[in-house]
Amino acid sequence: LELQMQKKGFCMEVGQYIFVNCPAISPLEWHPFTLTSAPEEDFFSIHIRAAGDWTERIWGGCTSHPGPALARIEVDGPFGTASEDVFQYEVAMLVGAGIGVTPFASILKSIWYKFQQADQTLKTKKIYFYWLCRDTGAFAWFNDLLASLEQKMAESGKADFLTYRLFLTGWDNSIANNVAFHFDTVTDTVTGLRHKTIFGRPMWNTEFAAVAAAHPRSVVGVFLCGPHALAKSLQKSCHQHSSLDPRKVKFYFNKENF
Q: Which helix or strand (DSSP H or E) is residue 113 part of?
C-alpha cells in the first residue's frame, strides 16, 4: 500500500523516515516508515507492507472501504539517516534487501528531478543499485519506478548513469522453467524490466572488484538498508577493496538496519 500525504509545512530530505500513528486503530502505537517520495514532489509518501495486525488493519481499511475512520493519520518527523549523505559521493553503491529498498526509491526519484532541473550542485556521476528479494512479489513494489527511470534516463541520454541489478534469492521450479523458456526475450520475465533478474545472492567480491576497476580514483559511498549479516559482508568487502594509496579507490560503508 502506498500512502500519500499532503505537504503542509512538511520539509524532508532523501532517505529520511517518519513515525505514523492511526488513532482509529491504536492511539498509542507509533510505527516507523521510510519516506519513499522525493523532496521535490508536492506530497510525501510511505509504502506499507501488510505484516502484522496494525499494518493489516491500515491496509484493509484503505483498500476495502476507505472512509473517515482511517482519515486521520498522525505523523512525527522526519528523522535523518545515513542515506542522506548519498549525494556527497561521485559514485554510490546502494544495496536494499526486501522492503529495505524504500530509502533508495526516494533517492533515485530525487536524482531524476535534479537531472531535469540541471542541478549544478549534484556531485553524483554514477549509481549502482542492488536489490535482493526472496520472492518475485516483492519486486512489484518499485517495478514501475525502475521502469520509468530506465525509460526517462535512456530518452535523455543518461542511460549509463544508473546500473541496477536485481537478485532473486528464493525461487521454485516453475519460475526457473519460465525464465529458461523466455531466455531470449528483450525484457525480463520476472520484472518486465530490461535488466535480467539474477538468481541467487550477489558475489560481492566480484561486484566490488568491477566497481573499483571502473572507478580507479574515486571515493565510493556504499549504502545498505538491510539485515545485520549483509552489513558485515559489505563492510568486509569495503575494507578489502579499498586501496591504501590515497590517490586510488576508497569504499566508505554507511548502514541502516531495520
A: helix 102-116
Does residue 95 sit in the same domain as residue 152? yes
CA distance 126 to 128: 7
d(CA 231, CA 181): 35
All three cell numbers of 169, joined, read: 534469492
**Range of the structural domain that residue 60 is part of:** 2-79
pLDDT tens for each residue of the chain, 258 residues long: 888 999 888 999 888 899 999 998 899 999 999 898 989 999 999 988 888 899 998 888 777 665 555 668 899 999 987 666 888 899 999 998 887 788 888 888 888 888 778 777 788 889 999 989 887 666 677 777 777 777 777 787 777 888 888 888 876 555 554 444 444 554 544 445 556 677 888 999 999 999 999 999 999 999 998 888 999 999 999 999 999 888 899 999 986 644
- Number of domains, the chain: 2
Do 111 and 128 reside in the same domain of the chain? Answer: yes
